[in-house]
Each structure stands twice: as C-alpha cells, then as structure tokens.
Design goal:
Length: 164
C-alpha cells in the first residue's frame, strides 16, 4: 500500500506534540509520580506560608490560632490543585490527538483548519505511544488530583465544626 505524505506541519503532528510535552520542564514532572508529589508538596508548603501571612491580618482568626492555621493549610491546597488540573489538561489533549483517527491542523492561521486521516501504521504507532506513555501519566494525575480534592473537602468539613 502506498503511503501518503503527511500534510500536517511538524509542530502539529501528535507524535511531535508528545515529544515536545515530554521535554517541557513543567510537563515532564508527571512522568515520575514521586517527583510530582514532592514538587506539589513544595508548592503546597510555600503557599501555606504565604496564606498564613495573608490571613494573619484577620481579626476573626486572631481569636483562634487553631482555626487560623487550619484555614491556611487547607486553602493553600488550591495551588497544587490548579497545577495538577493544568498538567492533566495538557497531557489529556496530547492523549486525545494520539488516539484520534484524524488530525486537525492549520497550515497558516486559524481560518484554514483542515483534517487529515492517519494511515493505519501511524495510527497504530501513536495509539501505542498513547497507551504505554501517556495513559499512566493521566492515571497518576487523576490519583493525585483525587487526593488533593479529598484533603480540601475534609479541611472544609473540619472547619465547619464549631468547637475547633
């Protein structure tokens, strides 16, 4: 079978998008779950200190140092939460492009979008990349995202308890 030449510009080809995302400094963090967890904890602690300083000016929280610390601790989860969402969205976009049978691309601008149907051998290659490389990254991000969400919700419920 004669293979057609790919009309998609190199930077818009799903395999090249995957390679670029893998080389990216921020988007390479989820490749190692341990490294990502350590980085998110660092962001959480830095944000906790910042939130502690910001909320220290509140008159309401000066009456209860325990509530003051808890609200800063749990509200500081917003930064790792947003960071994990951004990482997930980037990797999910590449995953969908790798798994798709068609590639949407633009040659010179937003007004000339076109669609190219992948040949079978390229589709199989990119599907393999998606299932072996990208799917575990998405799974790790979903697990971490869930843990952050559970911590945030438990903090919210704990803060609602009147005797703290």
């Amino acid at each position: 079978m004669k293979e057609s030449k790919c009309p998609v510009p190199k930077e818009q080809q799903p395999t090249n998008e995957f390679i670029e995302l893998s080389k990216s400094r921020v988007f390479s963090w989820p490749k190692s779950k341990r490294k990502l967890v350590i980085i998110l904890i660092k962001f959480w602690l830095a944000t906790f200190i910042l939130f502690l300083i910001i909320s220290s000016g509140s008159v309401y929280f000066k009456t209860s140092i325990y509530r003051y610390t808890l609200i800063s601790l749990f509200s500081s989860l917003c930064v790792p939460f947003l960071l994990s969402i951004r990482l997930y969205l980037g990797w999910n976009h590449v995953f969908k492009r790798l798994m798709s049978e068609k590639v949407e691309y633009e040659e010179s601008g937003w007004y000339d979008g076109q669609i190219w149907i992948k040949p079978l051998n390229l589709k199989e290659k990119e599907s393999l990349i998606a299932s072996i490389e990208v799917k575990p990254i998405l799974k790790n991000l979903i697990q971490i995202f869930s843990i952050i969400l559970i911590l945030a919700l438990s903090g919210f419920l704990l803060f609602q308890y009147k005797y703290i």
